[in-house]
Amino acid sequence: MTLNHPLPDDPLKFIQRCIGQRKILWTYHVNIRLKGRFIPRQALIESYASYEIIEQYLKDKYLPSYLLTPELGRVGGWLQNQEAAFMKCHVCGSKLKPLITDLPFNFSDETIVILKSLPVLQCENCSEYLLDDPVMARVERILEKVNVAAELEIIRYAA
Ligand SMILES: [Zn+2]
User: Fold this and answer.
1) Is the dihedral of CA 42, 116, 121, 124 positive or negative?
2) Every domain of the chain and the residues it spans
3) What is the pLDDT of residue 19?
4) What is the per-residue DSSP string for 106-152?
5) What is the Å distance from ligand 1's center to 131 Cα?
6) What pLDDT, on a 0 to 100 scale, did the predictor assign at position 99?
7) Which residues of the chain have pLDDT under 70?
8) For residue 82, how many C-alpha atoms fall within 13 Å in the half-sphere facing its CB?
9) Gap from CA of 121 to ligand 1 centroid (Å)
10) One-character DSSP codes across 101-119
11) How far is the CA of 80 from the centre of ligand 1 (A)?
């Protein structure tokens, strides 16, 4: 597979512009990590002007990645060229395809929430899931209303 992702001249500005325009894909697992560190998605997005690049990994397979620090904590991300014919999985470089599926979210140590009929992007090869920002925003709003006394809650995602 050939690597074909031209780097922007100023990666920080590029990242800030993408986040300002909500051109973000969230990994399925970031949801859990953000919750564990008590960094709300909205705070992360709104602080984009304060981002600084701590480290860059330009040779990362399959997309160059950056470790950033907003005022709140550290965030990692991959540069994705959305003008490309298709978007690539950051794990294995394969094609991502849109899919409607059911996904579990660990709401807390005791509570699991299964969201049904969730629109995601799934890698055709390694099954990594990515969530578009509007979907992630809605997932957060749904999770806020979860009954914390329940061990398992099944909710239908409806846009
Ligand atoms: Zn993959």
Assistant:
1) positive
2) 11-156
3) 87
4) E-SSS-EEEEEEEEEEEETTT--EEEEHHHHHHHHHHHHT--TT-SE
5) 14
6) 92
7) 1-6, 30-39, 71-86, 159
8) 9
9) 11
10) EEEEEE-SSS-EEEEEEEE
11) 14
Q: Which amino acid is at 100?
A: I
- Ligand 1 centroid to 28 CA: how many Å? 13
Instruction: Check residue 1 and give its pLDDT.
Output: 41
Give the end-to-end CA distance of the chain in Å, rounded to a whole number: 36
Query: What token pair was written down for 112?
Result: 């699991």
The whole-model pTM stands at 0.74
Ligand 1 centroid, distance to 66 Cα (angstroms): 19
Instruction: Tell the residue number behind the tokens 């540069």, with chain if given.
Output: 79
What does the pLDDT look like over 58-84, one tens digit per residue? 887 777 888 887 765 666 666 665 554
pLDDT at 116: 96
Please give the distance, rounded to the nearest whole angstrom, from the Cα atom of residue 129 to the centre of ligand 1.
8
| CA atoms of 26 and 120, how far apart (whole Å) | 10
